[in-house]
Amino acid sequence: MTTNPFAPFTKAFETWQKLADDSFARTAAFYKQMDEVEAKHVERTENAFAEMAKLTKETLAYNSQLAAEWRKLSLETMKSAFGAEAG
């Protein structure tokens, strides 16, 4: 008759194995959710940068237009103030 000295631990090992498997499954599910959240975050960040670049370009164009108008108005003001003809 042979006896297995680890026989009493079989149930404990099975329980531990189930807990470990469940923990792994929960961790894998959590990481999957984190992947989805991160992907949305990256997409939103990319969209924000694209919008920021668009606004920067529009701002540069507007500032250039304002500067040109300012130069035109200043010349017209000088012309009318001094009665001089621009050559």
Describe the structure.
With 87 residues, the chain is mainly alpha-helical. It contains one helix and no strands. It has one helix at 10-82. It starts with 9 loop residues before the first helix and ends in a 5-residue tail after the last helix.
Draw up the topology in text.
Blueprint lengths: L9 H73 L5
Keywords:
1 helix; 87 residues; single chain; mainly alpha; rod-shaped
Shape: rod-shaped
Mean pLDDT figure: 92
How far from one another are the termini? 121 Å
| Share of β-strand residues | under 5%
- The arrangement of helices and strands along the chain is H
Radius of gyration (CA) equals: 37 Å
Structural class category:
mainly alpha
Uncertain regions spanning at least 5 consecutive residues:
none
What is the count of helical runs?
Answer: 1
What is the oligomeric state here?
A: single chain
| Biggest sheet record | none
Query: What percent of the residues sit in helical stretches (DSSP H or I)?
Result: over 70%
Q: Give the total of beta strands.
A: 0
Summarize the structure.
The chain has one helix at about 10-80. Helix content is about 85%, strand content about 0%. The protein is built from one helix and no strands.
